[in-house]
Write a structure and sequence with these properties.
Layout (H helix, E strand, L loop, with lengths): L2 H6 L4 E2 L6 E12 L2 E15 L4 E7 L7 H15 L3 E8 L4 E14 L6 E11 L6 E9 L5 E2 L7 E4 L10 H11 L1 H9 L5 H11 L14 H17 L4 H13 L7 H16 L16
Helix pairs in contact: 5-6, 6-7, 7-8
């Protein structure tokens, strides 16, 4: 399958995100001498999906959910203004307790510096009613051949908001982010022409797989994930080369395609957060001072 076919193969997915929810007080029951009694929980409440009466999550009484529809509808409208050919993929998980939506722009793309792929501009939106995710909006690139994400450390491109009943995102950011995304072609080309050493990769992987407790041999890292990164890096050295672009793609492959984990969606977010933390360190080889090249 060539790159154009890969772009055209992206399919629209419109999960049912517009369903009613309600918050109700929590209570428990117990049997007392063959009589069922009710005990109210005054400091907790639960969220239920009222069209199916399914339980979605529980929180403190101060919690105010932000509905999926409140987030998706205005972003969908904004994407129609900035792109004439985008693919929405909106999926629900756990009966709607978790929502992930991507908007991939087939008409806004840059070329891979290795000339092997195209990278399309993408907006990813996450929200939950079970407390797993806050409101999260990420602007990044999607390598269309391997389906790797292209993480950026720019704060505007990694928006997060607590659940407080309202949605505050500044939609004009999207137009700005598109322009910055187009500037990434130059930055990625520079990465492709920058060699890296085995020590560079090892030090980066140590930080990404760090654990507060040492292993049996005294190393503060998750050995299985460290080895997975090393194996992936070996593959990308053959495909792309021993350069920063190859190393970056080995890490984004590890982020985008987690294996043997309980919750792939949760793991992807956690690993992406680790990469963002690493990229924001001044001594990181991927540190970007100022706004140059951010998406």
């Amino acid at each position: 399958m060539n790159h154009i076919s890969q772009i055209n193969s992206l399919q629209t997915v419109l999960g049912d995100y517009d369903f009613p929810i309600n918050t109700i007080s929590m209570a428990g029951t117990y049997d007392d001498d063959c009589e069922t009694k009710l005990v109210k929980c005054h400091d907790r409440m639960m969220i239920v999906r009222t069209d199916t009466m399914e339980y979605l999550g529980n929180h403190s009484t101060a919690y105010r959910p932000v509905e999926h529809k409140t987030i998706i509808d205005p972003i969908y409208e904004m994407m129609q203004k900035v792109s004439t050919d985008f693919v929405p993929q909106i999926t629900m998980m756990q009966n709607g307790a978790m929502m992930k939506a991507t908007f991939t722009c087939k008409d806004i793309k840059i070329q891979d510096p290795a000339l092997q792929d195209y990278i399309a501009f993408r907006i990813t939106v996450r929200n939950s009613y079970n407390g797993v995710w806050s409101v999260m909006i990420t602007a990044d690139g999607l390598r269309l051949w391997c389906k790797n994400g292209c993480t950026t450390a720019d704060k505007i491109a990694n928006y997060q908001q607590k659940h407080n009943g309202k949605f505050y995102y500044k939609f004009e950011h999207i137009e700005h982010l598109i322009q910055e995304f187009k500037g990434n072609e130059q930055r990625y080309r520079a990465w492709y022409n920058t060699p890296v050493t085995h020590t560079d990769a090892t030090e980066m992987f140590n930080k990404l797989t760090y654990t507060p407790r040492p292993t049996v041999d005294g190393r503060y890292r998750n050995e299985r994930q460290f080895q997975t990164l090393m194996d992936t890096w070996a593959r990308y050295q053959k495909d792309i080369g021993c350069n920063k672009w190859g190393l970056y793609n080995a890490v984004t492959d590890w982020i985008s395609h987690p294996q043997e984990v309980k919750n792939k969606h949760k793991t992807t977010v956690e690993r992406n957060s680790k990469l963002l933390t690493y990229m924001n360190r001044p001594n990181s080889m991927f540190y970007m001072k100022g706004s140059y090249g951010t998406i």
